[in-house]
């Protein structure tokens, strides 16, 4: 069985996953690693961003680590064949419904945030975003011409009790291993799906997680609070659309997009999908300028959540912090190290 399937993808994806490969060799040489084309690279070679074989291999692996997909060269490709469609198909095919996105400020980077040091120093909260439902997947969706001229666009938000409950369960379980607090964000004041969301989370809490502190917040207020006082949060659970936006806001608290990993988990025992939250960064691709830490930290999460190697995850996390402490900085962090040199710094710290 493959332990770790690497899907480097496009743009800086292959550059940052190459550094993950070096870390795997140094830290966990016993892991069986495989690699497949994905995204635009797969489209160019096979006419599809995700082949059936690659998806089958992903589902049969213990963990999947994706680099990034997309780029201007595939802008003219039909929507269902675009690199990004491959990513949605991979997430849906692996049934990874809970997206864990840490907002974590590394001590040596407390001054690199767009906010004041006292707001971000010691920051460590986790957004759990529902990933396979909601408005990005709901039907009907279409754009149509209106008889009187102009057009009409329709997207549909759908959530079932089961979808809400399983992602909320992940959040409560996580909180128990952290500071024991869950904040659930929705718009129950204006959306029926928000109303159901609040009800289901409240019921699940009463039934199975009464020991965890639960708080409800409207998603717009959550956006404001994340900027104003993010340290009040421990685990925040929210839907696909709000989670997309709130986690990008949180990303900015911590310095750089190049620092942030993510995990997408499905049911217990099935593989998780790990990816840096950044995209393929066409503006710097091929120049060895990308920060590989988000990808390396995604591997750290894979060790923790899919590969049952918490010990190695702790070691790797400490090594990244140490590399930063000794002043290792890629350009996005205000330094001059190349992608490979940042990989060197982590290996040296290991
Ligand atoms: P992006 O995340 O690729 O880049 C945004 C900015 O951040 C750029 O200036 C880039 O140079 C910088 N950046 C990103 N990652 C970095 C890293 N590791 N080190 C240093 N700097 C980094 O987002 P953008 O430009 O909106 O999208 C570019 C392409 O990536 C598009 O085709 C988009 O669809 C795709 N994309 C793919 C994602 C994925 O594969 N999960 C996620 C987001 C975008
Ligand atoms: Mg996003």
TrEMBL record:
<feature type="binding site">
    <location>
        <begin position="71"/>
        <end position="84"/>
    </location>
    <ligand>
        <name>NAD(+)</name>
    </ligand>
</feature>
<protein>
    <recommendedName>
        <fullName>3-isopropylmalate dehydrogenase</fullName>
        <ecNumber>1.1.1.85</ecNumber>
    </recommendedName>
</protein>
<keyword id="KW-0028">Amino-acid biosynthesis</keyword>
<dbReference type="Pfam" id="PF00180">
    <property type="entry name" value="Iso_dh"/>
</dbReference>
<feature type="site" description="Important for catalysis">
    <location>
        <position position="187"/>
    </location>
</feature>
<feature type="binding site">
    <location>
        <position position="129"/>
    </location>
    <ligand>
        <name>substrate</name>
    </ligand>
</feature>
<dbReference type="InterPro" id="IPR004429">
    <property type="entry name" value="Isopropylmalate_DH"/>
</dbReference>
<feature type="binding site">
    <location>
        <position position="248"/>
    </location>
    <ligand>
        <name>Mg(2+)</name>
    </ligand>
</feature>
<dbReference type="GO" id="GO:0003862">
    <property type="term" value="F:3-isopropylmalate dehydrogenase activity"/>
</dbReference>
<dbReference type="InterPro" id="IPR019818">
    <property type="entry name" value="IsoCit/isopropylmalate_DH_CS"/>
</dbReference>
<feature type="binding site">
    <location>
        <position position="244"/>
    </location>
    <ligand>
        <name>Mg(2+)</name>
    </ligand>
</feature>
<keyword id="KW-0464">Manganese</keyword>
<comment type="function">
    <text>Catalyzes the oxidation of 3-carboxy-2-hydroxy-4-methylpentanoate (3-isopropylmalate) to 3-carboxy-4-methyl-2-oxopentanoate. The product decarboxylates to 4-methyl-2 oxopentanoate.</text>
</comment>
<feature type="binding site">
    <location>
        <position position="101"/>
    </location>
    <ligand>
        <name>substrate</name>
    </ligand>
</feature>
<keyword id="KW-0963">Cytoplasm</keyword>
<dbReference type="InterPro" id="IPR024084">
    <property type="entry name" value="IsoPropMal-DH-like_dom"/>
</dbReference>
<keyword id="KW-0479">Metal-binding</keyword>
<keyword id="KW-0432">Leucine biosynthesis</keyword>
<feature type="site" description="Important for catalysis">
    <location>
        <position position="136"/>
    </location>
</feature>
<keyword id="KW-0460">Magnesium</keyword>
<comment type="subunit">
    <text>Homodimer.</text>
</comment>
<comment type="pathway">
    <text>Amino-acid biosynthesis; L-leucine biosynthesis; L-leucine from 3-methyl-2-oxobutanoate: step 3/4.</text>
</comment>
<feature type="binding site">
    <location>
        <begin position="279"/>
        <end position="291"/>
    </location>
    <ligand>
        <name>NAD(+)</name>
    </ligand>
</feature>
<keyword id="KW-0100">Branched-chain amino acid biosynthesis</keyword>
<feature type="binding site">
    <location>
        <position position="220"/>
    </location>
    <ligand>
        <name>Mg(2+)</name>
    </ligand>
</feature>
<feature type="binding site">
    <location>
        <position position="220"/>
    </location>
    <ligand>
        <name>substrate</name>
    </ligand>
</feature>
<comment type="similarity">
    <text>Belongs to the isocitrate and isopropylmalate dehydrogenases family. LeuB type 1 subfamily.</text>
</comment>
<feature type="domain" description="Isopropylmalate dehydrogenase-like">
    <location>
        <begin position="3"/>
        <end position="346"/>
    </location>
</feature>
<feature type="binding site">
    <location>
        <position position="91"/>
    </location>
    <ligand>
        <name>substrate</name>
    </ligand>
</feature>
<keyword id="KW-0520">NAD</keyword>
<keyword id="KW-0560">Oxidoreductase</keyword>
């Amino acid at each position: 069985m493959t332990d770790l399937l690497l899907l480097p993808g496009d743009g800086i994806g292959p550059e940052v996953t190459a550094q993950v490969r070096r870390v795997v060799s140094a830290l966990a040489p016993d892991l069986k690693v495989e690699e497949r084309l994905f995204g635009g690279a797969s489209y160019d070679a096979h006419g599809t961003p995700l082949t059936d074989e690659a998806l089958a291999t992903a589902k049969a692996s213990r963990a999947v680590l994706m680099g990034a997909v997309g780029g201007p060269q595939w802008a003219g490709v039909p929507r269902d064949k675009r690199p990004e469609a491959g990513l949605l198909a991979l997430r849906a095919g692996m049934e990874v419904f809970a997206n864990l996105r840490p907002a974590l400020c590394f001590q040596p980077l407390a001054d690199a945030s767009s906010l004041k040091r006292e707001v971000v120093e010691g920051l460590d909260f986790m957004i759990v975003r529902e990933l396979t439902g909601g408005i990005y997947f709901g039907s009907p969706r279409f754009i149509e011409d209106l008889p009187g001229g102009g057009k009409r666009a329709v997207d549909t938000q759908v959530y079932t009790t089961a979808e809400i409950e399983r992602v909320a369960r992940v959040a409560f379980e996580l909180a128990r291993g952290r500071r024991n607090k869950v904040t659930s964000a929705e718009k129950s004041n204006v959306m029926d799906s928000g109303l159901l969301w609040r009800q289901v989370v409240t019921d699940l809490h009463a039934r199975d997680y009464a020991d965890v502190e639960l708080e409800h917040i409207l998603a717009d207020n959550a956006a404001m609070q994340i900027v104003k006082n993010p340290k009040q949060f421990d685990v925040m659970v929210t839907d696909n659309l709000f989670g997309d936006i709130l986690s990008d806001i949180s990303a900015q608290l911590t310095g750089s997009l190049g620092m942030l990993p993510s995990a997408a988990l499905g049911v217990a025992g099935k593989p998780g999908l790990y990816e840096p939250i950044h995209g393929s960064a066409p503006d710097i691709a091929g120049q060895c300028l990308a920060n590989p830490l988000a990808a390396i930290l995604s591997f750290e999460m894979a060790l923790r959540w899919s590969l049952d190697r918490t010990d190695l995850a702790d070691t790797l996390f400490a090594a990244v912090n140490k590399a930063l402490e000794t002043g290792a900085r890629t350009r996005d962090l205000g330094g001059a190290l190349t992608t490979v040199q940042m990989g060197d710094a982590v290996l040296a710290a290991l």
